[in-house]
Design goal:
The structure holds two protein chains of two kinds. Chain A is α/β, with parallel strands linked by helices. Chain A has two domains: 164 residues, Rossmann fold (3-Layer(aba) Sandwich), CATH 3.40.50; 114 residues, Rossmann fold (3-Layer(aba) Sandwich), CATH 3.40.50. Helix content of chain A is 34%, strand content 15%. Chain A contains twelve helices and twelve strands. Chain A has a six-stranded parallel beta sheet. In chain A, strands 9-8-7-10-11-12 form a six-stranded mixed beta sheet. In chain A, α2 links the parallel β1 and β2. In chain A, α7 crosses α9 and α10 packs across α11. By secondary structure, chain B is of the alpha/beta class. Chain B has two domains: 43 residues; 168 residues. An eight-stranded mixed beta sheet of chain B has the order 2-1-3-4-8-5-6-7. The longest helix of chain B has 42 residues. The radius of gyration of chain B is 25 Å and the shape is elongated. The N and C termini of chain B lie far apart (89 Å). Classes of the chains: A alpha/beta, B alpha/beta. The interface between A and B is medium-sized, with 26 and 26 residues.
């Protein structure tokens, strides 16, 4: 089965929720290359009721979390009530092929999620060692990290700003909002105002109003939709308020990451980093060839 | 000359070494016999009559309506063959018939179901298979009184094996629809059971043991737009 048949015979259904949706660049690549794509960031839009015709599901959501557990954690109000878990999406639409591309480079697959990977046909592994047990559950292809893709570009002024000043990524957003939101953030990390450190919030419900409040208080807030990896790659150094995927991404790209702890006088470096300026971008052709092979084998 | 020496020495050596060889043989044979006895005892539970009795009781409350929605059924238990006859196309495995561990089950279908007629069989299945049950079947039914594992541990095990939803199924002696209660989903970060809905007590007292139903995918809930299978 040729990739042309893939292009003409299938649609791609890309799903995720908020900051757990890491497939924007994939959607752009597929669209530019003539594939039919349906993108669903369930924070913005609900899942369609019906998908006509054969399709390939690509998701970056945690596979071991059901919709009900998700809503038990986050509530049943909009937009959380739009969340549908990957297993349930598969149950509903019966895709011809299912692919998992992780949204978190620090821990692409949690240990307890390992067994749930048998729901997928393909796993696009980012950099780093892959648990060999995974190969019992699904086909593993080493595509690289989806957010390092050579497609995301920053505006020149943003690129110049982060190259000079760096950027601070804010994690643990819910805890931060509960602790006092903008006031707490600016008090805990005075560098934001003192040094004009640009700030990036995650794409998550509530962050819009937090961003507006921070801007009103004089902080420089970058759009949440900007590619975090592109920002990291362009930055002199990145700062975070807690360990997470950003630190892993910075390490991957050979950029220094500093964890700012409000209780500590001096910030701590986020461990050793290896200069990896030659980290290859995400291998889109490999992903498509692997899907093509799988679909061909099923016929 | 050498051949002559060999001919002379051979019977002497045989006479000298025979008791030693026999003693080694006896020791090895005892070791093998002990090993076989252990394997034997592993195949048959010490409480065999209890397991058989549990099977017979739980079979009265078999959730047939749930099984009706599944594709291929595979029963495991001492009465597996008898039950399988009642479901067209079903297969069965009994520990009595097998010489060793469970044979490989070629079911890789999300719509298939494995039915353990007692929790003892579930335990033995887990001990003798290396691959996870969720790579074999989409649904597990386990007749259980939680004598081997407490309910919370049992649910944790099932969630860790890739069954995202575990529920209790009760079907009374008067027949009718099976009631589903105490539904838990795997907690996202550690697979511990998170109860979605703590159901009311079943209409008939749950005194005869019940069934756990474990699914790879959650049941479709009423508040979503459901698609007919």
């Amino acid at each position: 089965m040729s990739i042309d048949s893939l292009r003409s015979g299938y649609q791609f259904l890309l799903c995720g929720f908020g900051c757990e949706y890491s497939l924007t660049a994939l959607a752009r690549y597929l669209g530019n290359d003539g594939y039919k794509v349906i993108t669903v960031d369930m924070q913005e839009t609900p899942l369609p009721a019906v998908i006509d015709g054969p399709h390939i599901l690509v998701t970056s959501q945690h596979p071991a979390c059901s919709s009900q557990v998700f809503q038990a954690h986050w509530g049943e109000d909009f937009p959380f009530n739009q969340y549908v878990a990957p297993l349930e999406i598969m149950q509903r639409f019966r895709p011809a092929c299912s692919v998992f591309i992780p949204h978190d480079l620090e821990m692409p697959i949690r240990p307890e999620e390992l067994i749930y990977m048998n729901a997928f046909d393909l796993y696009g592994a980012p950099a780093g060692p892959v648990n060999p047990a995974l190969r019992h559950y699904c086909k593993v292809i080493e595509t690289g990290w989806i957010k390092h893709n050579g497609l995301d570009r920053l505006a020149p002024d943003v690129e110049a700003m982060v190259a000079e000043r760096g950027v601070i990524f804010i994690n643990q957003i819910v805890q931060l909002m509960r602790s006092g939101g903008a006031s707490y953030l600016l008090a805990s990390y005075p560098q934001i105002l003192a040094k004009g450190l640009p700030l990036k919030l995650p794409e998550w419900p509530g962050c819009d109003s937090l961003a507006a409040e921070l801007v009103a208080r004089g902080a420089h807030v970058l759009p949440a939709s900007l590619s975090s990896t592109a920002l990291i790659a362009s930055s002199r150094s990145v700062f975070v308020n807690s360990p997470g995927s950003v630190v892993a991404e910075a390490r991957y790209l050979g950029v220094q990451a500093v964890i700012l702890d409000p209780d500590m006088q001096n910030p701590s470096g986020a461990g050793e980093f290896a200069s990896n300026a030659a980290a290859p971008p995400f291998n889109f052709p490999l992903l498509l060839e692997s899907i093509d092979q799988l679909l061909g084998a099923h016929r | 000359m050498i051949n002559l020496l060999k001919k002379m020495l051979s019977p002497v050596l045989n006479w000298l070494l025979e008791p030693l060889v026999c003693r080694i043989d006896d020791r090895l044979r005892r070791h093998l016999d002990e090993k076989l006895a252990r394997v034997d005892s592993a195949l048959f539970p010490r409480l065999l009559p209890v397991v058989i009795k549990n099977e017979l009781i739980c079979l009265e409350f078999l959730p047939r309506d749930i099984l009706g929605y599944c594709g291929h059924l595979h029963f495991i238990g001492y009465y597996a063959a008898d039950v399988a006859l009642q479901f067209p196309g079903a297969t069965a495995f009994s520990p009595v018939d097998a010489e060793g561990a469970h044979p490989d089950i070629d079911i890789v279908d999300a719509n298939s179901a494995l039915v353990f007629l007692d929790e003892y069989h579930f335990q033995r299945f887990m001990e003798t298979r290396w691959s996870s049950l969720s790579t074999v079947a989409g649904t597990l039914l386990i007749a259980t009184r939680f004598e081997f594992l407490p309910e919370a541990d049992c649910r944790l095990v099932l969630h860790s094996l890739g069954f995202i939803e575990v529920a209790c199924a009760y079907r009374g002696t008067s027949g009718g629809k099976t009631e589903i209660t105490a539904v838990s989903h795997a907690e996202a970060t550690n697979c511990k059971p998170r109860y979605i809905k703590l159901g009311d007590s079943p209409s008939e007292a749950h005194t005869h043991g019940g069934w756990l139903v474990a699914r790879r995918c959650p049941r479709k809930t009423e508040r979503r737009v459901d698609h007919v299978d």
